[in-house]
Design brief:
About 2% of the residues have low confidence. The protein is of the alpha/beta class and 477 residues long. The radius of gyration is 24 Å and the shape is globular. It starts with a strand and ends in a 16-residue tail after the last helix. The chain has three domains: 132 residues, 3-Layer(bba) Sandwich (FAD/NAD(P)-binding domain), CATH 3.50.50; 119 residues, FAD/NAD(P)-binding domain; 127 residues, Enolase-like, domain 1 (2-Layer Sandwich). α1 packs parallel to α8, α3 runs antiparallel to α4 and α3 packs across α6. β12 and β13 form a beta hairpin. It is built from twelve helices and 22 strands. 30% of the residues lie in helices and 25% in strands.
Length: 477
């Protein structure tokens, strides 16, 4: 058995782990990176990048199909599923390759292959070949798709988002279980690429939208295009040859039996904390087995153990993983001199069409009577209508008294760009009047944001009537 003594041991070489390793090395300490699976990160291999490649292909097909709205008619449009997936996999491998190349450049002495488990709070055993005595440890083991027990007997007819991007061609039909961001993104993309898609959701929720006004518009926008069955339950799912027979019940009690080529379980992800031996570390654990940690330092109690990224299940998004990894790695390197790190405001985007974005304080967290909502619809928003993208709504939240902008929820055309502007404003603690002093070009979608900000300002001032109709069609008003 090999014996090693290091300052920092990082378990996991994904986005959080690589960032934690780099942050620790910046303090000129001895750090090692332990990984049991393939290098390449969840984002590059099975998450952000391959899903956006599939969505990009779907947007191209959708654009051709709807060009007739502009008086342009395309004939004999054909989606080549094999070619679509070939590009997805080629570009996916290219993105993952960048990460692999980086890891290959690290010192071989810093890379440990195998499954790590705690012997105690400072010692790790990696497979049956190495024991590492570490002054501090960063857990960055990521997450895996969660699959409901009732679906597990379907064999290769059952997929998770990790398996979709290994297809050689596109399916003819698929039932998507789950209406979070992953289910909605993949379901809409596959629908636009020609598959028969049905999305099942147990609740009325979509992509974690908790603002009832935005949620209502989102349901209408997406249901106009998709077979979206909210508040539905799967009574049974059984293998039937090379298909799956799905028996479901809708909200009104109607039951249906349908056949699909595949079922996609888009029912969330679970942290990879099993079999780490956390019970031998002495740190406090929640009932679900997750460590109790400080979200500003990533430290587990007063221990020398830190946890970052999807492994802690706080905000399982790539930009959060890198922020947390940076904080965890730096604090692990300077332990016991732990310091709070910079955390950004909550911020998430679902790349549906229209896109969904949430940032800052959530609707449910707003204090009753201490906020106003500035609202604008994109139905008649100038630039959106020009592009035939005029669907959606934007709600901005402002704090009464201070007039500070504190959050937003939207389903809107190109919401990824609107959301970034608003995230920067929220992180900078700007007020609604300050935001309205900034320039707005004409004609752009951002003028819809200006309309929402004006609405919020009027409500903050109380009693001034709202601007009606297409305010952004008259610059300077």
């Amino acid at each position: 058995m090999n014996q090693m003594t290091v300052d920092v041991a990082v378990i996991g070489a994904g986005s959080a782990g690589l960032t934690a390793y780099r942050a620790a090395k910046a303090h000129d300490v001895r750090a090692v990176l332990i990984e049991r699976g393939p290098y390449g990160t969840t984002c590059a291999r099975v998450g952000c990048m391959p899903s956006k490649l599939l969505i990009a292909a779907a947007e191209a097909a959708h654009g051709i199909e709807h060009a007739r709205g502009f008086g342009i008619h395309a004939a004999n449009v054909h989606v080549d599923g094999a070619a679509v997936m070939a590009r997805v996999k080629t570009e996916r491998d290219r993105f993952a390759g960048f990460v692999i190349d980086y890891v290959d450049q690290l010192s071989s002495e810093d890379r440990i292959r195998g499954h790590a488990k705690f012997i105690d709070s400072h010692r790790l055993q990696v497979d049956d070949h190495t024991v590492i005595d570490a002054r501090s440890v960063v857990i960055a083991t990521g997450s895996s798709p969660s699959v409901p027990q009732e679906l597990r007997g379907l064999g290769d007819r059952l997929l998770t988002s990790d398996a979709v991007f290994d297809w050689d061609t596109l399916p003819q039909s698929i039932a998507v279980i789950g209406t979070g961001a992953i289910g909605l993104e993949l379901g809409q993309a596959l629908h636009r690429l020609g598959a028969r898609v049905t999305l099942f959701g147990r609740s009325k929720m979509l992509a974690q939208i908790d603002d009832p006004g935005v949620l209502a518009v989102a349901r209408t926008c997406l249901a106009d295009e998709l077979d979206l069955r909210l508040e539905s339950s799967i009574l049974s799912a059984e293998r039937d040859g090379n298909a799956v027979r799905v028996h479901s019940r809708s909200r009104d009690g109607t039951e249906r039996t349908e056949h699909f080529e595949f079922i996609l379980a888009a029912t969330g992800r679970k942290p990879n904390i099993q079999h780490l031996g956390l019970e031998r570390t002495g740190i406090e654990l929640h009932e679900n087995g997750l460590p109790v940690f400080d979200p500003l330092t990533m430290q587990c109690g007063e221990s020398a153990i830190f946890i970052a990224g999807d492994a802690n299940n706080e905000r399982p998004l790539l930009h959060e993983a890198t922020d947390q990894g940076r904080i965890a790695g730096s604090n692990a390197a300077r332990y016991p001199h732990v310091q709070p790190g910079l955390r950004h405001i909550p911020f998430s985007i679902a790349f549906t069409d229209p896109q969904i974005a949430l940032l800052g304080q959530s609707y449910k967290s707003l204090q009753k009577g201490r906020f106003v909502i500035g609202s604008t619809s994109f139905d008649d928003q100038g630039r959106s209508r020009v592009m035939l993208k005029n669907k959606g709504v934007l709600h901005v939240y402002a704090e009464t008294g201070s007039s500070r902008f504190i959050g937003a929820a939207m389903i809107a055309p190109h919401a990824e760009h609107l959301a970034h502007l608003l995230a920067w404003a929220c992180q900078s603690r700007m007020t609604i009047p300050q935001m309205l002093e900034l320039p707005f070009y004409h004609p752009v979608i951002e003028e819809g944001l200006r309309s929402a900000l004006r609405d919020a300002k009027e409500k903050l001032m109380r009693g001034i009537p709202e601007i009606e109709h297409c305010a952004d069609c008259t610059p300077g008003t």
